[in-house]
Amino acid sequence: MSPQPQAAVGAPLSRVDGRLKVTGKATYAAEHDIKGVVHAVIVDSTIGRGRITGIDTRAALAQPGVIKVISHLNAPRLAYRGTENDWPDSKQLRIFQDDKVLFRGQPVAVVVATTLEAAEHAAHLVKVRYDAEKTSTDMATAPAGEPVNYARGDADKAYESAAVQVDATYQQARAHHNAMEPHATIARWDGDQLTLWDKTQWPMGTQKDVAAVFGIPNDSVRVISPFVGGGFGNAIRAWPHIAIAAVAARETGRPVKLVLSRRQLYFGVGYRPSYEYRVRLGSDRRGRVSAMVQHLKSETSTYENFIEGVLNTGQMVYNAPHVRQDHRTVPLDVNTPIWMRGPGYATAAFAIESAMDELAHELDIDPIELRRHNEPEEDPSNGLPFSTRRLRECYTVGAREFGWNRRDPKPRSTRDGDWLIGTGMAVGTYDVIRNGAQARVRLNADGTALIQSATSDMGPGTYTSQSQVAADALGLTMRNVTFQLGDSTMPTAPPHGGSQTMINIGSAVQDGCDKVRKQAIKLAVEDKDSPLYGVDAEDIVVRAGRLHVSDNPARGETYRQLLTRNNRTHLEVLGSWTPGQARHSMYTYGAIFAEVAVDASLGLVRVRRMLGVFDAGRIISPKLADSQALGGMVGGIGAALLEHTVTDHRDGRIVNANLADYMVPVNADIPDLRGIFLDGGEDLEADPIGVKGLGEIVYIGVAPAIANAVFHATGRRVRELPITAEALL
Ligand code: MOS
């Protein structure tokens, strides 16, 4: 069969929606212009645990423009049928169903008014009385639950008898996603039909969650979300404010807009949970790791047990024959955490890659050499062959491009004026998530195509990259392809998170487009009036909307000519991909290299340059991939040096619930960053388009690379993220 020419895939194209975004015409959740909309503002609990003993709404209701105040005293009883979205252990916060307060900031009432100003003012006038109890928000002192366990071999014995041992405990602070766009929902009921314009990374997930809240069929809820201003995982799940907007709309009979304030984003939606991660490594003197023992603790809420895939890395990244892990969650008086970029894997990488660096130092072995000694030939957790694992190549390319071999391994050996200079490296791994998906493909008689799937674009550029896949599979130019997303009525899509969008949606788009192209070719070769009549279908390719014999471009015709002559307004197919049973171990990989400068007397850390080399399978859209690499590394710098949600354990209040006190990297914090995606990495075991996903892997390993560089610069091992000046003084 003649392969379709590849013109769009692999080309460094700019975003097809770039102009819409920079001109403000991309419509985000709160910006949809819905007739008759009124405004809702949530009243948050000011205690961390206890009961509501009274709510006085008289002053609020007396304000001009206030329509209603809803609390557990007057809210409808809601069904809270079990949701079909069973992760994370989704019991959901049952808003306004009783007088219990489970965490500080929990919604206790909502004010609906004709203007935002009236709603905000009235929300301050709602007087809530509480019976407060002692709040437990400190993971260090609260009791942990039952562990999730993993074991192979006899790790404790192997550790005890190892020639060299490292035993270290690493802490990672709670962090918030802090996307630019706040979470926002507009809810409107038309009879029994609910429409939500929502910020979501998963339109169908929000649809199912909200349908479950009301106990109505999934089809009764439609979720519309064409643009998302950053997500990082936080918009995968339907949070309480979405249900509140829907309740408020039903109770007032008006469309209701509810936008969380920046402050409310620190307790109204999820966050990356804090972790304590103890690693024990046992090795021989040449650096072969025989044993890994790992004990983890992470925070969760009292009403849901959030647990993420944090144990996988320790099971497959290195070849240790003896591994034992246990992970306990600690229920606290907090709202439920959620996945945040590189979920689980980034946390594991910080602990394991720091410990490996400690071991390399102990053994006086180069950190890359140590990792090469422990590179498995097959997945040691299940004996499966790797589909593709090019970590060795990441090391080689990274060492060469970064200039690793010029490094003096001795800590605190390089100075530049007041600054101590150091370099460090770390490895990242991330799962290849295969859920399957569907995409509708419609080829119109005018030679344009419309492709739809109920996915999302939180920033990576789904509109663009899916159009690239479609353009080549259909044989159209990018200009004639439109990809639409962000509507739960479109064909089924899994969450737009976990780096799975290109894997799943891309495979479904390609399937649908291949089928439509083949339908058109069949139509042509069977049509006596076509110049392609009688040609073997396998010999025909389509290029820029024109079907022709692959080695005789002169013989052919356009889609438009073919469809018009045959009185076809369009050809349409529902493309789909369903992954088969995995016979391989499938992950993405990265090696991150960082150079830092540390002010010896002030403890300030500046990242000077950074390089990431990634094995992410085939790259569909190099410019977007590069953009992800830069963004991932910026995020990793934030995790390493700045990001920390601080809780006052006396009352559960988040102290820095704003972007002035919660530090994120700004331009001045960001040096030269470079991402390299290894060429030729097509992974057809993973999926039909050979991709492995890349949004997570570009972030994972960044923080430990920086931490290891800080050790190399200073000789001080900081085992807590973020690395602060105080820790270095
Ligand atoms: Mo992210 S945690 O892949 O949305």
- Derived from helix and strand composition plus strand pairing, the structural class reads alpha+beta
Oligomerization: single chain
Beta-strand portion reads 25-35%
DSSP E strands, number: 30
Through-space gap between termini:
66 Å
CATH superfamily of the largest domain: Aldehyde oxidase/xanthine dehydrogenase, molybdopterin binding domain
Query: What's the tally of helices?
Result: 16
Instruction: Identify every distinct bound molecule in the structure, by name, code or SMILES.
Output: dioxothiomolybdenum(VI) ion
**pLDDT under 50 segments (min length 5)?**
none
Structure summarized in a few sentences:
By secondary structure, the protein is an alpha+beta fold.
